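User: structure tokens for this one?
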Amino acid sequence: MQILKFGGKSVGDAENINKVVSIINRAVKKDRTIVVASAISDTTDKLIDIGDAAANGKDSYLYLIEELQKRHNEIIRILIPKDSRSKIQQTCDKLFISLKDITSGVYLLGELTPRALDKIVSHGELLSTNIISETLISRGINNKWVDSRDLIKTENVNGQNTVISEKTKENINKMVDFVKAKLIIAPGFISSNREDRTTTLGRGGSDYTAALFAEGCQARVLEIWTDVTGMMTADPRVVKEARTINNISYKEALELSHFGAKVVYPPTIQPVVSSGIPIYVKNTFEPDAAGTLIEANPPEVQNNIKGISSSDSIALLSMEGSGMVGVPGYSSRLFDALSKKGINIILITQASSVHTMCVAIDENVADIAKEAVDETFAYEISLKRVNPLKVEKGFSIISLVGANMRNQTGASGRMFEALGRNNINIRAIAQGSSERNVSAVVNTDNIKKALQSIHSEFFNIEKISTVYVFLCGYGNVGKALVKQIGNQCCYIKSKMNINIILAGISNSHKYIFDKNGFIPKNVSALLSEGLNTSDDCYFDAVCGANIKNSVFVDCTSSQNITAKYTRLIENGISIVTSNKIAGSSPIEEYLNIKTHCLNFGTSFKYETTVGAALPIISVIRQIKNSGDNIHNIEAILSGTLNYIFSVYDTTEPFAEVVKNAQKAGYTEPDPRTDLSGKDVFRKLVILAREADIMINMEDIDIQSILPYKINTECNLEEFYNSLRQNEKTFCSLYKNARESGFSLRVIASIDMSSTEAKGKISLMKVNSTHPFYNLYGNDNALSIISDFYKSPLVIKGAGAGAEQTASGILNDIISIIK
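Assistant:
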């Protein structure tokens, strides 16, 4: 004998019932079968609404009944041929007449009693199973429909319908012997009391019905058919990488169920545990998938951690007071006060000093709990031996489940470390006495990230890390970065086990946001139709996403954006930037960003702020990490200025060389930014700080790059006219340098040989022995002299360009992933 139970979604409509019929047809060919089914999806909720409407004197209850009847009639019309439809139509019509009679009484009395509600909701399973039974008969699959109310008996215990186990088992056993049909169909969820009045089995009632049938006839297996492929290592709606647990013990399944896994419920497991009947959880919509086998002694595997589950809407009750120390009975009185109000305790923690005690309960009953406990301890509270009960809401419990957790070396540590790495604070910790779970209470805002972090730690076999990129700035560099992510994502995933999700992009006017990511080639079109960026909407979305391995990429030159770095970091988001403002901001602001990253476990990467993709910052960092002492740094940090002074040879006026550089996109929109040295200014501050020289901008001596002072108040055309007017001076500078065998270069330098190291930026003449002599075009360069490098260590290469900068940003993103 085998028991097959189908949930509400499995029988949700005619199409799904056809799938169920196909599964039953295959099953009955193997063994004698009992099928237990739930009501058609949402029917129970609709029936409750009907009862409430009737009790509140609303005539709409009749309309709701008509709509429900139409839905069931339509399913009958699709499933059963017209000439075979009369019997089931009569059965369903009688059930709807019964429903109208009961709700009419409720309407007249204006009261919905528990007995009346049980009677009303029982119609859902009676309708669905009769439809399934007649559908099978119309397909040539003979079966016998039985009424579970005749078999499953309950009694009222503390206001709950409790199954009379021995009587129920006896009734089922006799039924199986009496009914000779190979296939039996029975409604789930419903039962009756000793007076044969309809009762219901509560949450998970249809699963419970199936388990009682399995126990009563000593079935060889109980199959629970649902809309997921078995029990999962985590909720697949939250953790995309979640996978099916192939084998799990009864007790482990019970733990997962207790802490939020919705596939099976604890009462479902109880009736079959003592009989040793295995439970198979299968997917109605993927019937050939393996599913999960729940049994007494599953096969041993190397990783005994089976899964992660979570419970939301949790409140923490904290009882504190010096009067608790050394005084017995406080715990029992607390638990008794909660028990009398029917409040279930989900988790318990207690300080070793017995000065505080904390329990987790359902948030919905937290206020009732406080009133009950404060009343119980009113005398101690009046004497200030105990504080009034403290209630905190907005928490979730996350539980790591596996057999013999005590001997899972390092499991708890790995769990807590994974949470810590992702800036998730733990409010309370408990390990069950069963040694099958370790639980932590975290803020509900962090539960998704917590599940993802812990799952990645224990179940990411291939160790593929997913990084979520939120880009700000969609100019030349931003577009190049999006293109590179599109071109390289497959290579990065296969070679580095890193999956990059482009989850958000914004420009100065619009933004798009989707945690599932965007296809890079579609970004421009999508962004043109995006949402308005006003009122920090984009930043609210990024911070509110609360996803592990989130990286904010700043491809702007905006101070307004850098001002938001600390907010992003506080939300566990790392920063990758080509924006030089934060790195060259006043020392206090710069160090605040660095300190924030340390405190919140995030990263601040800014390699491209100096030299684009050239490894200038990383080289200085490596030199310092090795214990080397830097004596002198010289650098060409502006590709624009290097282009201008390496191209100018008097054959073309200096003004035209600058104009050509502007047209080619080498300069800033306003070339005076480059020729004034402001851009180099910021870069030198960043370099100095990386070398542990904490200087501000005022500590840099910037000598005029041009042989005269730039008028910042004039317009661009006037600026170019001033260059033309000074052509003779430029020509003289060039010729004097060339005649002496020198080249003109704008060099930023830091001399650290003195106790007060300072920076300098100036237009210099360098001879052929200097490493910058032959530097051409828009290249950048770095020269370092140190204890280890007495001959200069030189780095040269393209120091500007959208593609080069984007590649450096992409490398910074990759370097963050842990």
